[in-house]
Amino acid sequence: xxxHKGTSYSINxxxxxxxxxxxxxxxxxxxxxxxxxxxxxxxxxxxxSGIQCPIQKGHSYSYLNKLPVKSEYPSIKLIVKWELVDDxxxxxxxxxxxxxxxx
Length: 103
Prior knowledge:
Layout: E1 2-4, E2 7-16, E3 24-32, E4 35-38, E5 60-69, E6 77-86, E7 91-102
Parallel strand pairs: 1-7
Antiparallel strand pairs: 2-5, 3-4, 3-6, 6-7
């Protein structure tokens, strides 16, 4: 995938929870040379991103967020890693996608 600087991309993930939780938070990283570099997102709180909390085991949820690609980011290839964890740091979902940041 090509991500263009100065653009914000919509993220929509549908998942079925395997756990119960009062809350959730997103952690996003740019993975380069097997090192995870934290990547700030506008709203890390999953309960403010389309998920109705508390999260119930066996229920399906649609998580919505934005991935802003700032103009000052370098033009590089990397892997975007997106995790959503519960309030006990247990994984709700995780995905990785290779991207190239371009002008």
